[in-house]
Amino acid sequence: VQLQASGGGLALAGGSLRLSCAASGRTFRGYNIAWFRQAPGKEREFVGNIKWNGGATAYADSLKGRFTISRDIPRNTAYLQMNSLKPEDTAVYYCAASSTIIHSQIGVASSYGYWGQGTQVTVSS
């Protein structure tokens, strides 16, 4: 499966952005879709995850309440809605997919075999 992330850009602190992760090559059915982010000089950080079948979600504790992951089954696209943005949210955001993952590993980047190219999010104060 090939992933295409989009929707990044420049936002003001307190604003919102919605990122998209579209699949091509096959459906997301049966996959776990995750969002990670990486700020300059920092390690890649887990943002959240959605199970395509059923839509169950999980989030990094520090982002709960501000970020929401959803999916549009007919469009074969996952979304990351980011609200109340802060300058520290500035990073390159990546979507990733895995068809075989156990719950305890959903926050581990190496658990995902498919990655999108990343989209830059910059939040100014």
Describe this structure in words.
It contains no helices and eleven strands. It has 125 residues and is an all-beta fold. Helix content is 0%, strand content 50%.
Number of helices: 0
Specify Rg, calculated over alpha carbons: 13 Å
Apparent shape: globular
Mean pLDDT: 96
Query: Using DSSP, what is the number of strands?
Result: 11
Order of H and E elements: EEEEEEEEEEE
The portion of residues assigned to helices is: under 10%
Oligomer: single chain
Strand content: over 45%
SS-based structural class? mainly beta
Low-confidence stretches: none
Q: Summed up, what is this model?
A:
The chain has 125 residues and is mainly beta. Helices cover 0% and strands 50% of the residues. The strands form two sheets. Strands 2, 4, 5, 6, 9, 10 and 11 form a seven-stranded mixed sheet that branches. A four-stranded antiparallel sheet has the order 1-3-8-7, with no helix packed on it.
Key phrases:
125 residues; globular; single chain; mainly beta
List the helices and strands and how they pair.
Elements lengths: L1 E5 L2 E4 L4 E8 L7 E7 L6 E7 L5 E3 L7 E6 L4 E6 L8 E8 L15 E2 L3 E6 L1
Parallel strand pairs: 2-11
Antiparallel strand pairs: 1-3, 3-8, 4-5, 4-9, 5-6, 7-8, 9-10, 9-11
